[in-house]
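lol ok so funny story. i was supposed to be doing the assay writeup but got distracted and ended up predicting the structure for this chain instead. priorities right. anyway since i did it might as well share w the group, maybe its usefull for someone
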Amino acid sequence: MVDPVPDILNVSKLTIIRGKTQILAGVDWRVRKGEHWAILGPNGCGKTSLLKSITGYLSPTSGEITLLGSNYGESDWRKLRLKLGIVTSALQASIPLAEVGLDTVISGRYAQLDLWLATTRRDKAEAKRLLKFVGASHLEKREWAYLSQGERQRILIARALMAQPRLLILDEPCAGLDPVAREEFLRFVDVLARRRGGPSLVLVTHHAEEIMPSFTHALLMRGGEVFSSGTKMSVVTSRRLSGAFGARVSVREVKGRYLATVNGGKA
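and the output, tada:
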């Protein structure tokens, strides 16, 4: 029988060793159409290395990565990467301070930073539509240097959506946001996850509070390995978070959101 739900991403036995250090150890992870994932874990657990591998910037020592049916090492990952959007603070330093919001968004269609290609009328129309969708139409002519952190994150999401990705990775998108801006941004992410025909989302975070109701699954990492993986209800629990973070963590669910409290002491 043919599987009616195709995989967006399939990571199998992914291992990364550099020198004498094992960074990832046999990671298995599968993202299917319609799923939205949160990745959690302490600093140094391998979250960043996993993302770099998926995006083709860190070669695995062994294992397989399949994105939209194409295998890493057998396909042109530069072209395939256009179907994989990423919003990360690492991009911000590469965007020219004088570049206006509209151009930053358009650059996502061509996977460029510091847009230099001549743009089309269609590019501009699509970029304006996406700016409106992310609530940033007023930033169309605003230069990058004069955008707040929250405004920059919305611009980067619109930029990522320009290439119509099937998978969108949000790498700690709330870092640097004040509490009000963080909540506004998370509500927007929740809307994005519910968007019909939109991409599957992967949210990388240290905070269970940032996992919105629309997210379906969670991947919990520790020491370069998968500590727990599955539906968010089975993974985001006091016992599993305590085990992954090595401390007594209490988790409560309130109206579809999580509240996590560190009670002190080792788990």
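Residues 179-194 form the longest helix (16 residues). The mean pLDDT is 89.
back to the writeup now i swear
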